[in-house]
Design goal:
Layout (H helix, E strand, L loop, with lengths): L2 E3 L6 E3 L3 E2 L1 H4 L7 H13 L4 E3 L8 H10 L7 E6 L13 H15 L4 E7 L3 H6 L1 H11 L3 E7 L3 H10 L4 E5 L11 H8 L2 E5 L22 H4 L17 H10 L10 H10 L4 E4 L6 H8 L9 H15 L8
Parallel strand pairs: 3-4, 4-5, 5-6, 6-7, 7-8, 8-9, 9-10
Antiparallel strand pairs: 1-2
Helix pairs in contact: 2-3, 2-12, 7-8
Amino acid sequence: MNYRALGHTSLQLSEISFGTWTIGGDWGNTDDIEALRALQAAMDAGVNFFDTADVYGMGHSEELLAKATQGKEHKIHIATKFCRSGDILNPATYSETSIRHYLEGSLRRLKRDYVDIYQIHCPPMFILKDGSVFEVLEKLMDEGKIRYYGVSVETVEEGIYTIEHSNAKALQVIFNLFRQKPIESLFPLAKQKGVGILARLPLASGLLTGKFTPEHRFSENDHRNFNEHGEKFNVGETFAGLGFVKGVELAEQVRWIAENRGNMTRAALRWILDFDAVTCAIPGFRTTAQVEDNLKSLEVPSFSKEEHQRLGEFYRIQVQPWIRGAY
């Protein structure tokens, strides 16, 4: 396993780490026993970081992480998030009283005394500009209840504002072959300011695995069914803002990335790790086999300068015009 510093912090995180939305809920049926096996397989391979949120299965993914990491609390780092179990447009959701309530709930479910990274979960821009939420997080750092704080953002603009107006040490962004916008301005600024980048949705909700056909249908309890067009939350969180059929079509156009890299999954993750501004990619998983396959991305060749240029042009011409929502 390779490790990278989370910006200007003491944390060294595994290049491939994992998000736990998929084992918490909203991705179809889940199997807790298999999820725990997969978490153990990841840790056995050297993974030392997992990302979660209090709304993933209404706390269920945090509870699974507590079981999997019992006795390893000082070796396995956890980031969780808050605010989306409340009204994200209500300033009261970001009051000190509310944040302490959210944090205590997460600590109880995680069975930990502190959280390594506490993240605001995709708040609106006016909350970031108000700034009082950052004052509360600074206080929680001083009290030792969180080591660092960060923001999970929907847009590059939100990310830049966070870096320039807070002491956030982690920025979680949607970044994959279909969402390359952060490369131009956000990544250089993050490197300059010592802010670590956590790349979420690295496989664009599975599109970049190359396993889907346009005829595929997702189960009713899978957000790829009920949020394809942003019906429940930000459209960018599902298929990186692309419609499913268009996404499948675009994935076919980059199937060549798998040449000499095993498969599209490994290639898509390797592409992300080619950017040194990225601390780690955090793909989701539901099975041990998925964990093992994702980790094989560490063994495949990086992309050449020419390949990066080809993929950048593909994004600008073929993908960008089809992305919906602010990003």
